[in-house]
Description:
By secondary structure, this protein is α+β, with helices and mostly antiparallel strands.
Amino acid sequence: MAKPKNYFKSVRFKLFVTMCVVIAVIVLCLVAINSVVLESFYLYSKTNTVIDVYNKINSYYNSNNSSSSIEQELRRIAFNNNFDIYIKTNENIIAFSTDKDLYSIINMISEADKREEGLSIYSDDKIIIQRVNDRENNINYILLQGLLDNGYELYISIPAMPIEESVQISNRALILIGLIILLISAFIASYISKKFTEPIVQLNDITNKMARLDFSQKYRIIDTDDEINELGKNINTMSDKLETTIKQLRENNSELEKDIEEKSKIDDMRKQFISDVSHELKTPIALIQGYAEGLIENVNNDEESRKFYAEVILDESNKMDTLVKQLLELMKLEYGKREFNNEKFDIVELINEVIRKCKVMIDEKNIQIKFEHNGPIQVFADDFYIEQVVTNYFTNAIKHAKEVDGIKQVDVKITENTQNGKVRISVINTGDNIAEEHIDKIWGRFYKEDSSRNRNDGGTGIGLALVKAIMNNYKNDYGVINLENGVEFYFELDKEEKIK
C-alpha cells in the first residue's frame, strides 16, 4: 500500500482521477450534444412532418372527398401532431381553422420578418417553413406557409417553446443522472484501481527489497495470463538469479579475503622471521668471524688453541642452525601453517623417553628426577609437538634448578581431571622464583629474565614461545606458578578428541 503522504502521487489515485474525469467529460459531452443536436433534430423531424401534412392536405383537396370528411381528417391530424392548421381561400375566406387566434398570429409574421426575427428552415416553390421568435409578444413557433393546388393558402403553426423546455429538462436529467453515475463510477473506479494497482504495489515492494539485497519476497503468481503476471514471473526469475549470483560473489569475496589475509600473514611471517634472524644471528656470526680471522692470522700457533677456535666456530654454527630451524617452526605454528597429526598416545611413555634423552644433562647438573605415575595415561594430541613442549619444560627446569636443603630436584607430575576430561602435566624445579613482572614476558621469543639465562646454557630463547604457539593451537591451558622453593611450569591436554 502507498503511504498516505504519497497517495496523491500513486498510480491508484491517478487511475481513479482519470476514470472520474473521463466519466464527467462524457456526461458534459452528452449535455452539450443534447443542447445542440436535440433541438436541431427536433426541427428536422417537425419539418418533415409538416411537409408530409402539407402533402396529405393537398391530396385531400385534390380528391373528391366531402368537406366534412376533409375537416374531420384535418382535426385528427392537428390533434395527433399537436399543432394548429389554418386554411383560407383566395377570397380570404377561412376554409378551416383549429385556432380562432391563429389569423392574428399569422398577421404578425410580416412584422417579425421586418424585425428580422424570422429564421427560414425550409422553402421551395410552394412551401416556406420558418422559425419565428417574437420577443415582444413572447411567441416562439414554427410556421409553415404553403399554397395548395386549388389555390388555398395553408398555414401550420407548431409552438417552439416546448422544444427548448424539453432540451432544458433533458439536460437537467442528464446532469442528475451523470452525477449519480459519477458517484457510482467513483466507487467502481476505486475498486478497479485498487485491483489493478495491487500487483503493481506488490512488485514495487519486491523490487525495493531487491534493491536492499533482500530476496525473501516473491510475487504471487495467479492463473491470469496477462502482462503483469508475466512481469511478476520475470521478476521472480531475476530475483532468484540475483540471489544466486550475489551469494556466489560473496563466497568468492570471502575466498579472496582469506587469500589476502593468508598472503598478509605470510608477509608478516617473512618480515618477523627476517627481523628475528637478523637480530639473533649477529652474535654467533661475529664470534665465527672473529675466531675464523684468528685462525687465518695464526694468532695462536699451538694445536690446542687452533682446535679450540675450530670448536667455537662449530658450536656457534650448530647454534645458528638450531636457531633458524626453531624460528621457522615457530613461525609456521604461529601462522597456522602446521598440520597436527593428532592421535591417542601414552603421555607417561613420552615423558620417560624425554627423561632418558636428557640423562647426560641430569648427571652433569647432579639433579634428582622424581616422576611418579600409576601406569599408562592416554591423551589425544600430536606426540611430536607434545614431546617438544615436555622437552622445553624439562631442559628449562634442569638449567635453572638450584639446591634447596642440599638437594637439586626436578619433579614431573600428572594430574587427571575427570570433570573436564583434561590431563595436567607439571614440571617443577627447586630454585629461585620468577619475578612477577617477568611472568608474562617469558613466553615471548628471545626474552631472557636475567644473566643466568645466557648463551652458555645453549638455549635459543624461543623454547617457551614454541610452547605457547603449540598450546594455542590446541586451545588448552598452560602457564607458570611460583612455589615456595621453586617454580612450576604446566600445560594441559585432552584425553579424547574434541567435538567440533
